[in-house]
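Researcher: Quick sanity check before group meeting.
Model: Go ahead. Protein one:
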Amino acid sequence: MSLFSLFRRPDFGALLQEAEAAGGLVVDVRTAAEYRQGHVPGSVNIPLDRIGAAKLDAGRPLYLYCQSGARSARACAALSRRGYRAADMGGIYAYRGTLER
């Protein structure tokens, strides 16, 4: 691992395609108000402060995003500790598609 790999951001589009191909669940961990302002089509909203109590299918891969990538990283770590397969997509700012409202 090089020093520069520490600053590499996830490829949001590639992870979104991976989620679709794998039958994964795309989860927006922003607040409900942020989610209503615009989200990735087909995503579900489970705010970070509720992720610990979420009942999710343990066999289904999870793909998480937030605004900048900080909350999704925290949510991924929490879910991974609980045995879920969770991928951090980073921040929605990297999404290049149409937002759903």
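Researcher: Fine. The other one?
Model: Protein two, sequence then structure:
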Amino acid sequence: MTTLTVSVAAVVVSVLALLLKRNNAEYSFILAVSATAMALIYLSGYIIETVDVIKEIFSKTSISMSYLVILLKCVGISFISEFASDCSKDAGQVALSSIVLTSGRISVLICALPLFTELLSMVSELCGG
């Protein structure tokens, strides 16, 4: 039901934004950004439920919870940078959009460095080094 609700709302807002774009392009942009923010707020309950399930899975295994924190940070960075990039594209700022995505990718890489370090040490131990 969630996908259907968000999809129908997105189509309705898209049509309204197209109608507004003819006369007031800035209002069209504001409408699209506002609708996206409202959709994220609507989905936040489902996101929290999903994170709780993932936490439960991690707690039942021997995997450290610090890895979950890193994973969630990387996902959050990805969502935020994608949203900001799309907003920049909608505003006609393609170069700015690209740099936002690049910044997000670099941030994810930096955030995930502890995982890479741990993976390399595990491989090293398995290889007897």
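Researcher: One line on it for the slide.
Model: The chain has a mean pLDDT of 89.
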